[in-house]
Every structure is written in structure tokens, then in C-alpha cells.
């Protein structure tokens, strides 16, 4: 008995299906074109599973997110970022020895090649840090040609560790360059988040003590962003990797994909939107009205999600953390109040209720980043820092899959039929 039968005119195609451990069942349409001459149309891949993945489980209807089976709520509360990075890549939580070895390796790779400084200095001071990070990530491949072979597991592991170690340094240095301050070198006595904060915010002239409230909040945010299945940027990373491009090039593509305001760029866009609401008098209902108007390009940034048709579980955690962190830091940000009011207005509005649009991960994260002292244009780079282990895990999963193929979607051609070339003076 086939699992499904597809009838098209007089023809029939028997289809097999695959069930995941949890969640969706997939029907394999791989023979559709060769047997029936048909391709599928699936705008935005909303209904397509490119392959099988064991990294992250999301149930959008119930608002569930798990990395390798572990609920995000538990990881956010009890784990730390490098442990999560290990879990995502290797599939299991590390033992104490494995953790120490991993942390030590990451810590020892935090320095950048000294000549990379000139790369940062080639950018205008007001360059967006996402562009710089994508370029610097791509440039890493030129500094480490010893470990680029995507089919060599050991080389991939080394490159993955270099990436996780060097990304905070690249981010901090792009910031330091933008504010005309000297670069601060990594401090290997500090944990991952604290080291990054020190490179970002300290100056050689003064002693800098990392605030544990800020470091813990950063770690929690990094964990919450660490993976999210086949989203736009992870799919970009996998797509580039499917052609056996090296891991640095693939991750650089992911950073570019993340930069868009419909994806990771939304965290910056949310803050800009909240600022605009305040500067225009604070009437949130006006902005909800605009978001519903199909003739107005304005959307409520930080609202809605392709997969979540319920509360994004990350948004729940971040909202609570935003209140706690601002309180602990003694920050009174009027934008938090505006955000909470906006959320309430939208959640009680038929338009948002019918379309099941809820706050997503980007809605409250910017408020915390701002309280920590990050400038708005660093928000999406912070998302990238968190998502890095997820991108790497997704890339590694694909390159280790013996059934993986180069990504090459079909299309329905709707352009002109064949026609003869006309010389320019006859057109
Ligand atoms: N404000 C107003 N209307 C919205 C919004 C919004 N934020 N999001 C969706 N809609 C409407 C949309 O106009 C459509 O209405 P209709 O059915 O009348 O045409 C309906 O809801 C379904 O939306 P869609 O655009 O077809 O949904 P999608 O799955 O293609 O897009 C999304 C998902 C996240 C791009 C979209 O919800 C959006 O643009 N949100 C704002 C940007 C944002 O916050 N992005 C961050 C996403 S979460 C983290 C990440 O991926 O980085």
C-alpha cells in the first residue's frame, strides 16, 4: 500500500511518506517530474521540507521550541552559550571534560590575525556592522586556507571553532572602529559573554568590570537565538554549503540573509518603530491601524511569524527578562511601556487575532540590548552571534548527509516564448 496517491488527469503516482520523530509527516515528491512531468509550486517554501534535520524541533501551533530535544526554557535558565553551541553541533550535552576541552579551544582562538585590522579600517566609520561582519567572516577563509575542505570533518571542526571564537572579536572591533576607539584584545580569563562585553565597552585608559547582570542577560539572549530550524538565513547557509562552498563563505551568506528587516533585521526595526511611536506622540492604536492598512507599507515589526501561530516561546522569556534586566540595571526606558501597550492593543485586535500574529523573538530583545548599552545598529549582529552555532550545525548536518544534493529548485517559466534577435538600430 502506498502512503499516498497523486492523481493528475489519467495518471497516478504512488508516493511514500516519512514521519518525523515529532510533528509533520512529509510526502516525498522527488519523482513527480520524472513520472508525471509536474513540478510543485510552494511560494516561500512554506510547505516544503528540503531534507531531514535532527537539530531543532519547533511546533508553531503550540509554541514549542527544543534544541536536540531539550526545551528552550530549560536551556535558557540552566545552560550556557558554549554548552548550547556544543549540544547543537555534536547532538549531546557535553560531559565536564568535553565541555572544558571545547571552552578551552574556543578561548584560545579568540585573537584575530593582526593584519585583519586593515580590513575594518577599509570601511566607512558609519558602515552597518552586519555588512562588516559578513565581509570579515568571508575574509576568514583567506586567513585559514588550511581548514577549508567541507568534506574533511576535522578541518570543518577546526573552522567551526575558529568561527565561534573570532566572531565576538570581529563584532567588537567593527564597533570600536565605528566610534574611533582603540581595539581591545580578547581576555582569555573571561567567559564568552564577558569577554565580548569587555572588548565592546572597555577602553585601555580605564579599568572595566563586567556587570554580571549584563553578562547573564547576554548569555540568555544568545541561547535563545542559537537555532531555529530551516529559517531564511539557515536555509541560505545550507544552500551555499550544498554546493560545497567552504563554511566561512556559507556563514557569510547567512549573515547577509539575516540582515533583512523581515528576518533578523527586525530587532533593529522594532526599536526604530518604538522610537517613532514615542516621537509622534505615543498613540499606539494609530500604528496598529496603519499596520492593518493594506495601502500602507508599514508593518508591526516584531509581530508575526511563518511558523508560530501562537506565542513565540522565546518572546515570552525575553519579555520577562526585559522587565527584570531593566529593573536590575536601574534603567527606566519609556520604550518598554510603549512596547507592552502596543502588544496589548494588537493582541486584542481582530486583524491580529484572525491572522494569529503574536510578538516574535525580536519584539522585546532590542529593549534589553539598549539597556545593556548596545547601539541600535548592533542588534542584528548580536542575533548573528547567537545564531552562529545553529548555522554551523545546520551546515555540518547537511555536509555529513550522504543523501544531500546541491540545492537547485525548479521554476515555472512565464517569460517570452522564443523570438529572434533584433540588431540595435532596428529596434
Ligand atoms: N504587521 C501587519 N500585518 C502582518 C504582519 C505584521 N507584522 N505580519 C503578517 N501580517 C499579515 C500579512 O499582511 C498577511 O495578511 P493577509 O492574509 O491579509 O494578506 C498575513 O498577516 C500573513 O502574513 P504573511 O506575510 O503572509 O506571513 P509570512 O509567514 O510570509 O511572513 C513575517 C512572516 C515574519 C515575514 C511577517 O509576519 C512579518 O513581516 N513580520 C514583521 C517582521 C518581523 O517581525 N520579522 C521577524 C520574524 S521572527 C525572527 C526572524 O525570523 O528573524
Report what the structure shows:
Helices cover 51% and strands 6% of the residues. The N and C termini lie far apart (60 Å). It contains 18 helices and seven strands. By secondary structure, it is mainly alpha-helical. The protein has helices at residues 32-36, 72-78, 81-90, 96-107, 117-121, 129-143, 153-178, 192-201, 212-224, 232-242, 247-258, 266-279, 284-292, 313-329, 334-347, 350-354, 362-372, 379-399; strands spanning 4-8, 11-15, 17-19, 25-27, 56-59, 64-67, 70-71. The chain has a three-stranded antiparallel β-sheet. A two-stranded antiparallel ribbon has the order 1-2. Residues 44, 231, 262-264, 266, 291, 299-306, 355, 357, 360-362 line the site of carboxymethyl coenzyme *A.
Q: Which radius of gyration do the C-alpha atoms yield?
A: 23 Å
What is the number of strand segments? 7
Query: Which strand order do you get reading across the main beta sheet?
Result: 5-6-7
Distinct ligands, ions and cofactors found in the model? carboxymethyl coenzyme *A
- Number of distinct helices: 18
Question: What's the rounded overall pLDDT mean?
Answer: 96
Specify the overall morphology. globular
Distance between the termini: 60 Å
Order of helices and strands: EEEEHEEEHHHHHHHHHHHHHHHHH
Instruction: Assign a percent range to the helix content.
Output: 40-55%
Strand content bin = 5-15%
Structural class of the helix and strand makeup? mainly alpha
Unreliable parts: none
Characterize the biggest β-sheet: 3 strands, antiparallel
Amino acid at each position: 500500500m502506498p502512503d499516498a496517491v497523486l492523481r493528475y488527469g489519467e495518471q497516478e503516482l504512488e508516493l511514500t511518506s516519512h514521519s518525523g520523530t515529532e510533528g509533520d509527516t512529509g510526502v516525498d515528491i522527488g519523482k513527480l517530474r520524472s513520472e508525471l512531468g509536474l513540478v510543485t509550486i510552494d511560494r516561500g517554501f512554506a510547505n516544503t521540507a528540503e531534507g531531514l534535520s535532527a537539530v531543532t524541533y519547533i511546533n508553531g501551533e503550540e509554541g514549542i521550541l527544543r534544541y536536540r530535544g531539550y526545551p528552550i526554557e530549560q536551556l535558557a535558565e540552566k545552560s550556557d552559550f558554549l554548552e548550547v553551541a556544543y549540544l547543537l553541533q555534536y547532538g549531546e550535552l557535553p560531559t565536564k571534560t568535553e565541555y572544558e576541552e571545547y571552552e578551552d579551544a574556543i578561548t584560545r582562538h579568540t585573537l584575530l590575525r593582526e593584519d585583519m585590522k586593515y580590513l575594518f579600517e577599509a570601511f566607512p566609520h558609519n558602515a552597518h556592522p552586519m555588512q562588516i561582519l559578513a565581509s570579515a567572516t568571508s575574509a576568514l577563509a583567506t586567513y585559514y586556507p588550511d581548514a577549508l575542505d567541507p568534506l574533511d570533518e576535522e578541518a570543518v571542526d577546526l573552522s567551526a571553532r575558529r568561527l565561534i571564537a573570532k566572531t565576538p572579536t570581529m563584532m567588537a572591533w567593527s564597533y570600536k572602529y565605528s566610534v574611533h576607539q582603540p581595539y581591545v584584545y580578547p581576555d582569555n580569563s573571561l567567559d564568552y559573554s564577558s569577554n565580548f562585553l569587555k572588548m565592546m565597552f572597555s577602553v585601555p585608559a580605564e579599568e572595566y568590570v563586567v556587570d554580571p547582570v549584563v553578562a547573564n542577560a547576554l548569555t540568555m539572549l544568545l541561547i535563545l537565538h542559537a537555532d531555529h530550524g530551516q529559517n531564511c538565513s539557515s536555509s541560505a547557509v545550507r544552500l551555499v554549503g550544498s554546493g560545497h562552498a567552504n563554511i566561512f563563505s556559507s556563514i557569510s551568506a547567512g549573515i547577509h540573509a539575516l540582515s533583512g528587516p523581515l528576518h533578523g533585521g527586525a530587532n533593529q526595526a522594532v526599536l526604530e518603530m518604538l522610537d517613532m511611536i514615542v516621537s509622534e506622540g505615543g498613540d499606539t492604536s494609530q500604528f496598529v491601524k496603519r499596520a492593518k492598512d493594506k495601502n500602507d507599507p508599514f508593518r508591526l515589526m516584531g509581530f508575526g511569524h511563518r511558523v508560530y501561530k501562537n506565542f513565540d516561546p522565546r518572546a515570552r522569556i525575553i519579555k520577562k527578562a526585559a522587565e527584570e534586566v531593566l529593573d536590575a540595571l536601574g534603567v527606566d526606558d519609556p520604550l518598554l511601556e510603549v512596547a507592552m501597550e502596543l502588544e496589548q492593543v494588537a493582541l486584542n485586535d481582530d486583524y491580529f487575532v484572525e491572522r494569529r500574529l503574536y510578538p516574535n523573538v525580536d519584539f522585546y530583545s532590542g529593549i534589553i540590548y539598549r539597556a545593556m548599552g548596545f547601539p541600535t545598529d548592533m542588534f542584528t549582529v548580536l542575533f548573528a552571534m547567537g545564531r552562529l552555532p545553529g548555522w554551523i550545525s545546520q551546515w555540518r548536518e547537511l555536509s555529513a548527509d550522504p543523501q544531500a544534493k546541491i540545492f537547485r529548485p525548479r521554476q515555472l517559466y512565464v517569460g517570452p516564448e522564443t523570438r529572434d534577435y533584433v540588431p540595435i538600430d532596428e529596434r
